[in-house]
Amino acid sequence: MNHSNAFSEQTDEWLARAALRDQEAFLMLMRRYEGKLMAYILRFSGFAREDAEDILQEVFLKTYINLNAFDDDLKFSSWIYRITHNEAINAYRKRKVRPHNAEGLDEDFLNNVPAEFKLDHEIDRRFLQTNMRRVLGKLKLEYREVLILRFWEDKDYREISDILKKPMGTVATLLNRAKKAFEEELNQDAKIL
Amino acid sequence: MSENLSENVLKKIQENKIAPKAKWQFTLQMWLVRTFFVISIVLGGISFGISFYLLQADWSGYERVMPNAWRFFTSVLPYFWLMSSVLCLVAAHWNFSHSRRGYRFSLEKILALNLTLSLLLGALFFFLGLAPVAESWFMSLSPGYRNSMLSRERVWQRPAAGVLAGQIYEVSSGGTFLLVDLDHNRWQVKQDSGTWVGGRFVVQKGEWVRIFGVVEEDDTSKVFLAREIRSLGPPGRRFTPLLPRLLLPVFKTHFVLKEKCS
Hints:
heterodimer; A: 72% helix; B: alpha/beta; 5-stranded mixed beta barrel; 8 helices; 6 strands; elongated
């Protein structure tokens, strides 16, 4: 389709403005973010895939309805992640699901234990597969969200600040605490097991 | 993940004729938040201004009515206006942090900004002489507040201890005047050559004063021999506003200004 070709080269911000007049532009945006946001919801919440899809649909609908609220001072990516984060939080609080070894664990998630974490033991891949989700699930919500955004969604401090609507100083402090908490939990689990 | 999630969402948008909310709604919301922020800062400034004004209570002679300066200070603290200032700061903080970029600032920075703005505005309000005007106006609106302010003045109403406060309603010759005290009792106040009159006021009808002296024995009426007479001042009379003084040649003022020749 000529439309799709024309849109595929445009920035997210351009598409967001165009989507106010042309729904095809919005479709392009959704296709760009579908995979990323689904992975984020799954990592963050521990929901089953079907539930995550429901949340993602809600996210896209809210994004469309609030398109005029998007302002250029923000990256579109940060803005849609913010909406996704809020929807995931709301759903999480309603259902109070504790993340455990849910379906849909992605390889990236398991492979990307950051080098910055200080782990006591030679923790092998199988151990990580079995326990990382559980360890993350034990952490406070505010720790989990910053860890996932920083190390798995690869967001910088400014982006995390814009997504969570917290000052950058607070984000830095939370990240430090989250890392320590994650290391302690994982090392403790490794000792026990 | 179902392959057609994006297409399904688009279909839902088209079938239900879902449309983006109009931009004006978000613009209005943004301006409402900003407006309420400004209002909070202005009200906070007014509250601080009036607090500065009320703390200008003439402290001289406090030791005759209170055991120490701290007790006197806590009795004249303008609690209502200080609480109002705090509430305005809280409201300003809430509005700021809910603005588009407000979340980027830490709590300490937002509070510091709000406090600084309110204090500066309060100081300006005070030095322009608007605080007594605002306080008088508020007093006229709220009998409850008026009563609480009169209660505050009552620290100077202790005739048995030699401290009397009230309003002059008649001045006779020889320095004697008649006074209605804060308990609505009428007094005849006598002066003699040793009586000291201080503060920027004149002993005249309508003036609010506090008097240090002694109660004279008299079976027929209450008589007070004054040793010192100082202004008590209702709001609006206690402090001579700067602005009307500056504009005196041009505008009429409600405040009577007479220099006391010492």
